[in-house]
TrEMBL record:
Catalytic residues, chain numbering: 110 (tele-amp-histidine intermediate)
Protein name: HIT domain-containing protein
Motif (Histidine triad motif): 108-112
Domain HIT stretches: 14-124
PANTHER family: HISTIDINE TRIAD HIT PROTEIN
Organism in which the protein naturally occurs: Sphingomonas xanthus
GO terms for MF: catalytic activity
PROSITE patterns: HIT_1 (PS00892), HIT_2 (PS51084)
Amino acid sequence: MPIDAKQPYDGQNIFARILRGELPAKTVMESEHSLAFHDIQPLAPIHVLVIPKGEYVSWDDFTASASEAEICDFVRTIGEVARMTGADTQGYRILSNVGKRGGQEVPHLHVHVFGGQPLGPMLQR
């Protein structure tokens, strides 16, 4: 169910639990401020989630509150994941859903990296 990205951070969300080691994840890479791992229900041959290690609900929260180092690390991690997975060879899509109308389901900022097949139009009608 979509969440309200303006609510306070919920430390019991699935990504917070992954970061604390309470739930397993198949890690693609980890940096000082970010973690990338395979989605457990992939929608494309390449489907990796990239999350910041800090407690940020959404892009709005992250860009308003994160340090320059966290923002730089997160963006670079997304690019590195695309290269590491080979998504960059034929093209890929990065997607972050924000809030109820954006379809955000986990109250922790995350970016999907999709690739490995034609991805179709941006939005379905």
